[in-house]
Design goal:
alpha+beta, Alpha-Beta Plaits, five-stranded mixed sheet, 2 helices
């Protein structure tokens, strides 16, 4: 199962994705591919934002079945960074709703 956790605390966004969905075999798991694509897209957007000077800090890591990112935007970029996370989180939450046996989504900020 893929476990996804998001937290917003002290103006910092934290996302952690761990595990494999188990929906299909290696190379054919559409659920795992969808989660990975959303996570990788967010990470690239954050790396781009950091290069533009929109982030005070960005910590991230990725590996087999794992991705984490913590982003603290500068005040002028709070809204665009929030929209980045909100957009990707919407997709991740939709996947968890459609494939609850494969994806668990938890928002610790609610």
């Amino acid at each position: 199962m893929t476990e996804i956790r998001y937290r917003f605390e002290d103006d910092c966004h934290h996302l952690q994705i761990q595990g494999h969905s188990g929906f299909g075999g290696h190379g054919g798991d559409i659920v795992c591919a969808a989660v990975s694509m959303l996570g990788q897209t967010l990470l690239q957007c954050l790396i781009d934002a950091e290069s533009r000077g929109d982030l005070k800090t960005l910590r991230h890591s990725r590996g087999d079945g794992a991705l984490s990112a913590a982003a603290l935007p500068v005040p002028a970029a709070r809204e665009p960074v929030r929209v980045m996370f909100e957009t990707v989180l919407t997709g991740l939450e939709m996947l968890a709703g459609r494939y609850p046996e494969c994806v668990a989504y938890r928002n610790d900020s609610l």
